[in-house]
Amino acid sequence: MPKKPAVRQSKPAFLFDLDGTLIDSVYEHVLAWREALREFGIDLSTWRIHRRVGMSGGLILNALQRETGRKLSDKEAERLRRLHGEAFLRRLGDLRPLPGARDLLSMLTRVSVPWAIATSGKEEHARQAIKILDLGERIPLITRSDVVHGKPFPDLFLAAAARLKMNINNCIVVGDSIWDLVASRRAHALGVGLLSGGYGEEELAHAGAYRVYADPAELLRHIDELGVEADV
Amino acid sequence: MPKKPAVRQSKPAFLFDLDGTLIDSVYEHVLAWREALREFGIDLSTWRIHRRVGMSGGLILNALQRETGRKLSDKEAERLRRLHGEAFLRRLGDLRPLPGARDLLSMLTRVSVPWAIATSGKEEHARQAIKILDLGERIPLITRSDVVHGKPFPDLFLAAAARLKMNINNCIVVGDSIWDLVASRRAHALGVGLLSGGYGEEELAHAGAYRVYADPAELLRHIDELGVEADV
Question: What parts of chain A have a pLDDT lower than 70?
Fold first, then answer.
């Protein structure tokens, strides 16, 4: 029998975005930002807000200022962020896990593939939202509070890889927004897009997605395409 | 001076979708459907509902049944539609005109380009929503009640062209959803896509959009590309 070549296949690790990737919460964030912006008399179209969710709050504010031409003071920006947070927490009861999210994470744990969650959101919001995944308290979670820059900077994914003690080149970033994918390219990870945040397939492909699936359930059914051997 | 050739350029007419095209109301419809579905114990992901809004209510129900595997009786379907309607009307106060919508329609009227609104929605909802455009009562409006089949059937746009006494081939359909564009192709009108309903640009192009603009304001700035000579 011929000897197999001695190239060792590296098992990947997975770095997941949270909102729109594991939890059906993008539309809640969109409406929470809209509510907060309207309190400031800023009427920005809902779809434009949708396309900004997933960025760090600071960068969302920059982008919104560019689109509306209105410059907020630091104090106003802080108030806007607080209003968004309050409006989001009021909508917590409407959140659901995305189909397959729990099964996917449980399967990865079962076959010893490391994974973490890296979100541009605040730790307080993420901890609340993550509860509906019902996976216990010990989820490796990196939030905006852990890094200097949120997405589309690569910092959150780099910090998540470091937390798992994995080389970022062996990591697969899974996200629903173009900001996840742009950040994954800057981090030199492989990016996988999900449609479950409401972006179109080509928007994600153009932002650099290596593969695009509908949601965690479809990703799970195709997990072998991402280098994980598991009987799913 | 050479004589100009005797080809007469036909002025187009415009057939507008309503939700997501003239009014920022797609996200309200999405959440209203989600609320109604949850009352039935149907947990369908928000983005999947988003991609169905703009179809006729009956076809939405077919699509949802295909995605959830649950078959509703006629009585249940009727109740679901009623719940959606109630949930939508509760959100009327959140609706805004999309940027440029009023200016675009006023300009077309000023330069004597005929236009009408053709929506898959119920007449009652459309009449309520249309009020925020503040264009008076005499808007030519075709709704689901006027035709046998809603979008993506071509009936609504064919009926709107007939109302304007225009040949459908001279009509430009403007819509935010792939159902508008698919219907416009079936009607043999020219379809123009708007991003203001939250679809991606390529989704609209793939569905057959001849041009894609961000919103009514951007369409208005490019109105010469669509064959309307106006000083805007």
Answer: 1-9
What is the per-residue pLDDT across B104-161, written as a single tens digit (0 to 9) for each? 999 999 999 999 999 998 888 899 889 999 988 789 999 999 999 999 999 999 999 9
Distance CA A73, CA A54 (A): 22
**pLDDT for B38:** 94
**Residue A1 within a domain:** no
Domain shared by B126 and B165, yes or no? yes
B45 touches chain A (CB under 8 A): yes
Specify whether A87 is located in the same domain as A129: no
Is B19 a catalytic site residue?
Answer: yes
Residues 6+ apart with CB under 8 A from A78: none
Rounded Cα–Cα distance for residues B116 and B27 (Å): 23
Cα separation, A56 vs A116, whole angstroms = 18
pLDDT in tens, A167-212: 999 999 999 999 999 999 999 999 999 999 999 999 999 999 999 9
* Separation of alpha carbons B146 and B119, rounded Å: 10
ipTM metric: 0.93
Q: Is residue A3 part of a domain?
A: no
B229 CB neighbour count, 10 Å cutoff: 11
Which run of H or of E encompasses A63?
helix A57-68
The residues, any chain, with a CB within 8 Å of residue A126's CB and separated by 6 or more, are: A18, A117, A119, A141, A143
Give how far B94 is from chain A: nearest CA, Å. Answer: 9
- Are A143 and A83 in a shared domain? no
DSSP B206-222: HTT-SEEESSHHHHHHT
Chain B nearest CA to A2, separation (Å):
49
Q: Enter the pTM of the model.
A: 0.93
The Cβ of residue A189 has, within 10 Å, a number of other Cβ atoms equal to 28
Check if B155 contacts A (Cβ < 8 Å).
no
Angle of CA points A134, A136, A137, to nearest 5°: 130
Q: Phi and psi for B66 in degrees, rounded to 5?
A: -65, -40
For residues B164 and B140, the answer to whether their CB atoms sit within 8 Å is: yes
- Which candidate, A188, A185, A153, places its Cα nearest to that of A170? A188
Q: Are residues A113 and A217 in the same domain?
A: yes
